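Running co-folding for heme C.
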Amino acid sequence: MKMSFLLSHAATSALFAAAIFAASLMAQPPQPVSQAGQPTSPVPEAPRSPDSVPGSRPKRNYPAPTNLKVLPKNLTGNEVHKTMETWAGSLNVHCNFCHAPDPNNLGPNGRPRLNFADDSKTEKKVARLMYTMMQQVNQDYVSKAMDMETDDMGSLVSCGTCHRGHQIPEDFVIPREEHSSPTPASH
Ligand code: HEC
Ligand code: HEC
């Protein structure tokens, strides 16, 4: 059970690989991309070559998470960070959409830093529900449908499947031409 959860998480991460790769291009020289559908391994922690693009931010090591309730607890800080960038991108929001500022921890610009472990924002709680829903949909339904199909065309459900860059998914409106016939219908 635990294993399938982890595998499923890895598969879901693979869906995000393209977005993550695109983001990594902005900060780093190109790296080999994994085969489509293969889980991507975490970005290596090894020191980067010094020939990085001038002005690009140095590769950071993010602290290990302390308050994971739905993500696999063994994720490294960098893995959590990658997932978070995907969530933020899928909803087209910034980190502070879900994470509350800590008034006692001011950054160099005098503005409070976010307390990522804090659970006070409703959006963070909703995001946990959303993630749990997504895992269950993928494990109990979508992956089973994929197993039944002979082609390899399917993809697992991700935050972006529904959100598509919106905080709340937009209503789908059926295109008009599919709905109306060119000639008046005769009954
Ligand atoms: C859509 C909501 C959402 C957005 C946007 C978001 N997060 Fe999160 N974040 C969460 C949730 C939910 C958790 C807790 C996951 C869990 O319980 O397993 C979390 C956990 C974390 C943690 C781990 C905290 C700990 O110690 O346990 C870090 C660090 C973090 N987020 C950083 C970020 C950063 C950086 C961004 C912006 C790039 C970001 N988050 C954007 C919802 C969000
Ligand atoms: C099956 C479709 C679906 C998927 C997949 C999905 N969401 Fe949602 N999400 C929704 C819908 C629908 C709402 C609006 C619910 C409501 O009205 O409260 C929503 C609302 C939210 C909200 C509250 C937004 C607000 O403005 O109050 C957050 C945060 C959120 N989703 C995060 C996520 C994250 C993070 C993921 C991926 C882990 C995700 N969602 C995956 C359908 C989805």
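Result summary
Residues 87, 91, 123, 126-127, 130-131, 134, 157, 159, 161-163, 167-169 surround heme C (ligand 2) (CB under 6 Å).
The chain is about 40% helix and 5% strand.
Job closed.
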